[in-house]
Amino acid sequence: MNEEKIIDGKLVASTIREVLKQKTAILRDTQNIIPTLAVLLVGDNPASKVYVSGKAKACIEIGYNSIVKELPDSASEDEVLQIVNEWNNDPLIHGILVQLPLPKHINETKVLLSLNPAKDVDGFHPENVGRLVAGLPGFKPCTPAGIIELFKYYNIETSGKNIVVIGRSNIVGKPMLNMLYQKQDYSNATVTICHTGTKDINYFSRNADIVIAAMGFANFVKANMIKEGAIIVDVGMNRIEDNTKKSGYRLVGDVDYNDVFPKASMITPVPGGVGPLTIAMLMVNTFKAATNEFYH
Q: Distance between CA atoms of 118 and 94, rounded to whole angstroms?
């Protein structure tokens, strides 16, 4: 297996964290500011608990303060909104993250709208979404922003390229589309977004220089769906049964890695590809919130 093809997200994320460590130490020593991230977890979703734990560890490693508030699944919408409001008004808290998904009886849109956009380090508030679409400064969603960082680190040319994004979620697909067509470095591409309403995804994906798979469907993208030499970015993180593993499952992406690998010129693995960049970019956004980079 040609290791040079592999886009190593762990390496890129580690590089970003090291830079943030240095900048955080300077911010603390010169301005007495310690970036602080507050995370609200409602319910006991196992995947959410893992993500929140990873975020807290990253904060500690870099030198941030980390606040994690856990509420039971039975928590009311009013309780969630009250905590968000308290954090909005606390000058020592710079970034707020409400871990999604929320229990069904809580209106996610209402909760996201209640966030102070200047503390919305997930980049999901409509004001930050609007800033992204308009090409204005603001917090960008972490996973798509992490993919742009992969392109930068590996100097992957995107300008004028045909890029296909499979999946139209608010978390990855839509913001990825909006980042990639901006007239900026490591963007400026011709972008097609495919989804469940697309009649022939293969037609689009076979003509793509870069394919970004983000639909949440295990091993969906096969070798016959891409052209020779395409660059493949796999955002998927799916659990499939595997009795050889102690956990009883293994993680696979939305791309059939072994099938696609020989044909791709570069590819992200799962795990260890895009995933580590999501938390790294959350840390970047938290630092920017602490220095009030976008909202004055």
A: 8
